Amino acid sequence: MSKGDVKRYENFLRKLSKSRGSGAANAAHMIAYYAWKGLGDSRAIEPLINVLGNKGWKARMSAACALGALAANGVVDSRALEALSGVLIDKRPEVRVYAAAAVRRYAEQGVFSEEVFNRLVDLLSDKDKSVRGRALAAVRRYVENGFINEELTGKLIPLLKDKSPPRPPSVSIKAARAVAGGLLPEIAGIPGTIIADKKAQHLVKVLEGEELAVCGNAAYILGVLAEKGICNEEAVNPLIALLKDRNETNRNVAKSTLMKYAQKNILREKIHEALEKAR
Question: How far apart (Å, rounded) are the C-alpha atoms in residues 16 and 29?
């Protein structure tokens, strides 16, 4: 990290504490930019929490993005997670998207909240596709760590038909390309591009989002729940339909979850017949 980067980061950190409106949005955006480059610390947490209460939705969105970027680098604070919980129900979908992405980063650092989990489950029915995808990725982290919600299986079943990848919105892709700078030049974000640099590979993952499509993530979570004895017969038919999906990963996840259902004596004969046909 160059001395110039450090100086500019310090400058935006000062602006973050003093700015309002569009100035706060720009300062938070730049804090996120530098956090993704590995430059960020706990001094940014409190002013970013304050910006989450800004009247401007772009400022709230940028603050949520920045808190997620800091969390990805291990800079977390329980106060920030509580504040992010509040914007998970923001009226703007752009803010909800980045809030869901941020709380997923917190979960990956082992910082959880029951309130956050319940709000994420509610977001699985959000009208906005991007919000649903980001919330689902976060729910996955929570379920993997033992969190359970009685409404969850019912929320997941409709998502088994959603073939879209849970990618960030286009503004996130542009931001990640900017962070990539010289590492990825004009090929940043193009799936299938072979890149040797480890930092560049990480940025490609940021660009591409989760490795599973929404339907694959939903099927995976249903499998984790099945291992805990939580099954829903209504999931069987859409899981069987997923066995014909063009994507091999989605097919394999659906197969694995169906096998777990069969082991729990949930429509065993029907599942075995479907698995035989899918061979």
Answer: 10
Comparing CA positions, the residue from 22, 89, 105 lying closest to residue 62 is 22
Name the pTM for this structure.
Answer: 0.83
* AA letter at 62: S
Task: Give the DSSP H/E element, type plus range, for residue 80.
Answer: helix 78-87
**Other CB atoms closer than 10 Å to residue 182's CB: what's the count?**
6
- Reported as a single tens digit per residue, the pLDDT across 136-194 is 999 999 999 999 988 999 999 999 999 887 554 443 444 444 444 433 333 333 333 33
Whether 232 and 157 have beta carbons less than 8 Å apart is answered as: yes
CA angle 274, 276, 279 (to 5 degrees): 110
How far from the centroid of its chain's Cα atoms is residue 249's Cα?
A: 19
Buried b (16+ CB within 10 A) or exposed e, 240-252: bebbebeeeebbe
Alpha helix ranges (H) inside 57-197: 57-72, 78-87, 93-108, 114-123, 129-144, 152-156, 170-180
Kindly report the backbone phi and psi dihedral angles of residue 80, in degrees, each rounded to the nearest multiple of 5, phi listed first.
-70, -40
By C-alpha distance, which of 113, 118, 120, 108 is closest to 80?
Answer: 113
Range 94-123 burial, b when 16+ CB lie within 10 A, else e? bbbbbbbbbbbbbbebebbbeebbbbbbeb
Residue length of the chain: 279
Is the distance from CB of 209 to CB of 243 less than 8 angstroms?
A: no
